[in-house]
Amino acid sequence: MAALVDTNVLVYARDTRHAAKHARATEWLADLWERGDGRLSTQVLQEYYVTTTRKLRPGLRPEDARADVIDLTAWAPVQTDPQAIAAAWSIEDRFGLSFWDSLIVAAAQVARCSALLTEDLQHDMDFDGVRVIDPFQVAPTNR
N or C terminus: which one in the chain shows less Cβ crowding within 10 Å? Predict the structure, then answer.
């Protein structure tokens, strides 16, 4: 089951201030690396870099965040291109999501993911074959 990982999961994997979320995010990412099922988008990579270097306290050094981004490119990030933007508009109109959430769902669809790991959308929602999994409610062994 390929899963697109939202920014919040990546950030919690680096944020030790929230021990339970840190542990669960780390568990999910390890499982996805092991299975080769992780996917993401360029939007997620951009948000991750900015959040971990400018918003997270204590934040990452830019060099460390950049190394993470380089490592994560192994997950074949979906480009935020005009086609993805048009798909996001359609999702936004159909489901009433914010544009940014719609762009994440569109990326999951483009990447042919059956799951979207995020805490930002309702757990178990289905967007035309992409099921939202709140990784902080469900362990990877129970997916």
Answer: N
